[in-house]
Design a protein that fits this description.
Blueprint (H helix, E strand, L loop, with lengths): L5 H8 L3 H22 L6 H17 L1 H15 L5 H27 L7 H20 L11 H21 L4 H17 L7 H93 L8 H31 L7 E4 L1 H18 L3 E6 L6 E4 H18 L5 E8 L5 E6 L10 H5 L6 H6 L7 H11 L3 E7 L3 E8 L26
Helix pairs in contact: 3-5, 4-5, 5-6, 6-7, 6-8, 7-8, 7-9, 8-9, 9-10, 10-15, 11-12, 12-15
InterPro entries: HATPase_C_sf (IPR036890), HATPase_dom (IPR003594), His_kinase_dom (IPR005467), HisK_dim/P_dom (IPR003661), HisK_dim/P_sf (IPR036097), Sig_transdc_His_kin-like_C (IPR004358)
Catalytic activity: ATP + protein L-histidine = ADP + protein N-phospho-L-histidine
GO molecular function: histidine phosphotransfer kinase activity; phosphorelay sensor kinase activity
Amino acid sequence: MSEVTAEMVQRGRGPTAEEAARRRKVARDVRSARERLTSSIGLERAFDYELLRVYAQYRIGAFLPLVVLACCIAAASVFWAPALMGGAWCAGVLLVVGANTALSRSFLQQDPDALSLRASRRRVIVGEMVQSVAWALLVLMLVQVEAANARTFVMFVLVIVAAVTTMLAATVPLAAYAGLLPLCAATGALLCLSLEAESVLLVGMAVCAQLFFLFLSNHLHASTVAALQSRAEKDAIFGELEQAKANSDEARRRAEEANLAKSRFLATMSHELRTPLNAILGFSEVMKNEVFGPHASASYQEYSTDIHDSGLHLLNLINEILDLSRIEAGRYELNEEALQLAYVVEEGRHMMGLRARAKNQTFRELIDPTLPRLWADERALRQIVLNILSNAIKFTPPGGEITIKVGWTSSGGQYVSVKDTGPGIPEDEIPTVMSSFGRGSLAIKTAEQGSGLGLPIVKGLVDLHGGGFQLKSRPREGTEVIVTFPASRVMDALPPVAEESHAPVRPVRAA
């Protein structure tokens, strides 16, 4: 018969965490690929909209500087061109700049889901080209002017406008190309006015500078896309973290519900099981002791003894499960009082002495009789001692020795140490031994069968007292269990209880 593992149960309940993560990644990749296929620039729709949004913000922010730049250029052109022509040129530039700014504001005010990104991108490209044409018309002023300084001024203006245009339209590369084309054409047209070597050199340098600005614009676009992708990945991670937190909260809620159901089940079943179990124990003890007369067959008495022993074993198992459930649920209440740790250990050793003598085992005691009292729960402390002594007797071979130590810790607390000469536990099996119903492979082969709840109960009770639990074991060298209690539970270390003192009232005599 094949064993049903936790992994198989998890698969039956649904996909594992790794499988769910892989499915989410595949779905995200498919959605991203679908958006890239429907996009005109090869990016997801969210990236496409974000690039246009950044462009619109750049354009709105550059409105006032461009107006100032156009007015300054028109004012400077008065020195070498008619004022009417400069004013007309400035009015045209301001009209186009204002129209582009209005389109950018309208774009930002619309619902992103209802926008047609292709149409918006076409409007941006056309707007950039028209605006660059308006700036490039500055060359027409040089038709009636022969001054070399005027050509140099216009060339300088065209280079500045090219730099501004490529930087503002960097997030829409086609708009940057469309905006730079009229400016490069206007700069090249200056060669028609003069073919001197100096003019050719200046025009060549101006065109190279404009192309360099276009190169910088492409790099700025790549950096913006990389930043958007990084932000999208970060948002996706945050989304996955939120989903994981929601899943964790849901799993914790289900675990709490399951724990509550388990507690209710154990509370109900403990009553339902103990009622018939008490009858089994009582009647089997009557039959075992032959209270109403001897049995007709000697085997009946042996069967009655087996029934009684099995009932006791089942009762102990039920009690251990209930104790562990209360400890794990945090419902184990401590009834603390002042106790002598050495006396509790000695009492436990006396109770387990019969089992040890049956296996010809000996106790070696190193107990400090001067230890002060300990503030602890007597029932829990006795259960701790009995559990670790029971394990030591169980796993120690016949004729072995069990060493019991009780004394001070280095921090001023008290400790109990029980060391046996049994088979020991491999290091990799210690976590299994400390888990509920866990037993080591070597111990199963060489010792009596148990429920595997003794050590978990001991550790839980020790934790309730704020103490420490340590298990040291090596194969064929035995096992040592050390239980420590903090110094705050030693009676000599506890501060005295302060009582309110009332000073005697002296009678006041009347004068």
